[in-house]
Prior knowledge:
It is elongated, with a radius of gyration of 28 Å. It has 14 helices and ten strands. Strand 9 and strand 10 (306-311) form a beta hairpin. By secondary structure, the protein is of the alpha/beta class. It has helices at residues 7-48, 53-75, 79-84, 128-135, 158-164, 179-184, 194-203, 207-211, 233-245, 264-272, 274-277, 290-293, 313-319, 322-332, and strands at 87-95, 105-113, 117-121, 143-148, 151-152, 165-168, 252-256, 282-286, 298-303, 306-311. Helix 7 crosses helix 9 and helix 13 (313-319) crosses helix 14 (322-332).
Amino acid sequence: AAGRITLGEMTLYVVAFQRGQQAFQSSLSGVGGLYEHDLYMSNLFEYLAIPTAAQAALASMGTTEHSADVGAAAAGSGAAVVQAERGIRFDGVGFAYPGQDKFALRGIHLFIPAGQSLALVGHNGAGKTTFIKLLSGLYQPTEGRILLDGQDLRTLPEEVLQRRIGVVFQDFNQYQFSVRENIAFGSVEHLADEPRIERAVQRGGAEEIVRGLPSGLETMLGRWFQKGVELSGGQWQRVALARAFMREQADILILDEPTAALDAEAEHQVFQRFAELSAGRTALLISHRFPTVRMADRIVVLEGGGIVEQGSHDELLAGGGRYASLFALQAKGYL
């Protein structure tokens, strides 16, 4: 306005000021981002510093030694028998999630002989999935112990336990890899074992799925990569079942709602072969569908974190307890 600078010079100064302001703001944002990332990295390093489950279990053996000695003393001369038994034993097992005062499971005393099929029944939150995660070594008991063929799971090397157990959880993984790899991940060392993969496909009821894919076992699943094929929930579940059956050396088979996403016909086909698939194995099954549950040799009813009933299907119906009322409630819907 005074004529001391030109309009072009004023524009230059304004733009320079704005650029400087933006650079200063970017610097401050960068410093804030560094601090935020540092917080995340500190969480990561703290997480990586946590001892593995096996190390933590071995370290805690000293604290549980007294309770084990008490159990052995109570058993008296029977301690040697426990060492010789074949099967799974829950000995006073209790589990509470970190930060929770309430136990998800408590006072579980149960023996599952080798080769027996066992079904777990109960409402949501009764502790069924917690039960099998304890058995598979993913969780460590807060109290008590779990014995496999007489040996505490906490003393078993992790790889030994993993080889002995084949499991399909409700929240199974959907790997963005080929069908072959999705199935063979159940036993990675047999990735190139064609006959074994074919047997797993057949046992998991995934033959039609594989036949219907453009490149068969080599078809890429998911949408992450080019030419990937997305499967339905039921088809993914059959692939997960096949993955569990890849682990032929496993003598313990765990199925957590293995047919929840399958249609009625596919579910019927899977459980028509249930006896064949679990022959010679210890099988644990979680299901809310009683036609499936009644196939098991023994049924255990969980409620409130404890065992309220156990027996065969006929025995539990005759007892008129919790199982009988649940069965009648479900059967009523078919009348």
